[in-house]
Write a structure and sequence with these properties.
This protein is of the alpha+beta class. Helix 4 links the parallel strand 5 and strand 6. Helix content is about 25%, strand content about 25%.
Amino acid sequence: MTFITYKWTIERYHRAIDAGLFDDQPVELLRGDIVVMPPERETHAYYNSEFGDYLRVLLGNRAKIREAHPITLPNDSEPIPDLAIVKPLGTVYLEHHPYPNDIFWLIEFSNTTLDKDLNAKKAIYSEAGIAEYWVVNLQDRELKVFRDLENGRYASEQTFKTGFVSPLAFPDVQIQVQRLMNS
């Protein structure tokens, strides 16, 4: 027996949200599939919030730091990254979530969702043209940085446990790696 799953478009997904279909369950849209998000535990919430504040200090008004808010991608995906560092476009975001060309880079803090973040989400972000993607592996206390898009895939992967990293969009900004995991 062959199973055919229903694929959601972003437009249908938004209509379902507007109708209150997912009010009782946090979900995100990944390649047309609605994925239930696990409950956020204290550790994850802490790192996400603290590092968001750290980035706000470092970047000032050069970027907007969005914590756990959707982004809209062309591959029928509307994921909810932990941190999206986006262009500060003000009221434009009343009309739509950030699109790929609005995004400087994305960060996921990963403990129970490590496999999803390092595989499915990484592929979705690279296919959409997101220039830089960071995964903070809270299990192994390391940062994985994905860059250098080639043919819809990240060609470069670096792993850091200490030191400093500068995002591609802000080469003058030095981000302390240990601050990601020891905020």
